[in-house]
Structure formats: C-alpha cells, structure tokens
Automatic annotation (TrEMBL):
Function: Condenses 4-methyl-5-(beta-hydroxyethyl)thiazole monophosphate (THZ-P) and 2-methyl-4-amino-5-hydroxymethyl pyrimidine pyrophosphate (HMP-PP) to form thiamine monophosphate (TMP).
Domain of life: Bacteria
Keywords annotated in UniProt: Magnesium, Metal-binding, Thiamine biosynthesis, Transferase
GO cellular component: cytoplasm
Pathway(s) this gene product operates in, as recorded in its UniProt entry: Cofactor biosynthesis; thiamine diphosphate biosynthesis; thiamine phosphate from 4-amino-2-methyl-5-diphosphomethylpyrimidine and 4-methyl-5-(2-phosphoethyl)-thiazole: step 1/1
Domain Thiamine phosphate synthase/TenI, chain residue ranges per copy: 14-193
Gene: thiE
Pfam families xrefs: TMP-TENI (PF02581)
Annotated positions binding Mg(2+): 76, 95
Protein name, entry field: Thiamine-phosphate synthase
Residues binding 2-[(2R,5Z)-2-carboxy-4-methylthiazol-5(2H)-ylidene]ethyl phosphate: 140-142, 171, 191-192
Enzyme Commission number(s): 2.5.1.3
Amino acid sequence: MNASLRPLLPPGPYLLCDDTVRPDMPLVAKAERLLAGGARVVQLRMKRTPVREALEVARQVVQLCRRAGAVCLLNDRVDLALLSDAHGVHVGDEDVPPEAARSLLGPGRLVGVTVRGVEGAIAAREAGADYVGVGPVFGTTTKQVPAPVLGVEGLARVVKGSPLPVVGIGGVGLDNMPWVAATGVHGAAVVSDALLAQDIAERVRLLASAFEQGRVGG
Ligand SMILES: Cc1ncc(COP(=O)(O)OP(=O)(O)O)c(N)n1
Ligand SMILES: Cc1nc(C(=O)O)sc1CCOP(=O)(O)O
Ligand SMILES: [Mg+2]
C-alpha cells in the first residue's frame, strides 16, 4: 500500500479508551459510549488488561470504530494493532521505537509518537511518524509523566515548530479545550475528562464543540 493511502488522522478531540481510568467499566462499553458521542479518533490504552483479553478487546473496539467511521489506534502494542487490523499505533519512549513500528506496520497504517518538544518532533518525522503527541499540557493524575507541564504557551511553541501534526495531551478537558484548540493543535487528547463523565457520549459532543469554538480560524 502506498503512503498516500494511509488513513488521515481526523482533527479535533482524540479520545483515549483507557483501562486505568474508571476500571469498573468494560473497555468495549467505554468505546461504545465514546463513539456514540461522535469520537473520530479512539486510542485503546490497555495497561492492566491481560494480553489475550487485550487482543479480544482490540478486535472488538477496532470493529466498532470501523463501523462508526472512526480511526482506532493501539497504545504501545504494534503486535495487537496488526492482529486487530487497527489503523495504527501510538508509541512512546518505553515502547518499540517509531522506526521499528513503521517497519512492522508498513506504509498503510498510522504511527504516532510521544515527544516533549520541537527537536523530538523533527526526530519523529525522520523516524517515519505521522503525528506527535505532546504533553503534559496541564497537570494530570491519570499518569505520572516524567516531563514538566508545558501550558498553552509551551504547546503553542511546539505546534509552531513541529513538522508533524501535534496532538496535545495531559489535563485536557472541557474547561480548557478552547484554549488548547487555539494553539493550532491538530488534535486534543482526552482521557479522564471524558471517561469520568456521567454521560460519556454527551461529554464527547461537548468536547468537539469546545474544540471548534477555540480552533484557529474557527
Ligand atoms: C496522543 C498521545 N500522546 C502521548 C501519549 C503517551 O504515550 P506514552 O509516552 O507511550 O505513554 P503511555 O500512554 O504508554 O503511558 C499517548 N498515549 N497518546
Ligand atoms: C497518557 C498520558 N500521556 C501524557 C504525556 O504527557 O505524555 S499525559 C497522559 C494522561 C492524560 O490523561 P488525562 O487526559 O486524564 O489528563
Ligand atoms: Mg507507551
């Protein structure tokens, strides 16, 4: 497959379907609610799910996303992405390096890479990545991140210098979404603000309209 046939990463809210936040709710139920709210990108992040169960969940969530016309990315696991026919992966410093992910996935799938600044974004492009995840934008309790908080100004600097589309992550939610979108980010990744909401689907709808409200030129 030619790289031009690779799926595009839809702009806007980028929702994580995560097993560490609200662990009492099954991942497939979370994915259904995210998609019911119109999620166009879902990253399946499984840190606690045993691998055989994770493969089964990945197959179900990928199928749900494909039916809904959404892009599904697997966090960390290139093997599960291939076995579930996901649209791609998101990898960071503790995962398979981006060059290896690209070589295993080929040109037809997306590779996202976590970076902390413009230099990292340049290296990610050279490694064959399609987009970069940049954070933490704000403080977060979802994960202990070994990097300082960027704030919206720091995020805007990375957006300006990055050769790849930027997805901001870390503490992003309804209250700050317009400011995050106003930096010119391609996407805004959200974990707890969506998954902890009483009505997850409605929260996703609100996040999308808040992104549109803040979007550069929007
Ligand atoms: C969109 C996005 N950006 C950054 C991350 C963090 O990935 P990583 O550094 O590999 O950390 P874990 O998520 O694996 O804990 C992400 N998942 N998504
Ligand atoms: C998984 C992850 N990675 C981050 C990074 O900065 O690399 S912040 C983060 C967690 C984001 O969760 P929430 O939306 O609940 O703050
Ligand atoms: Mg990772």
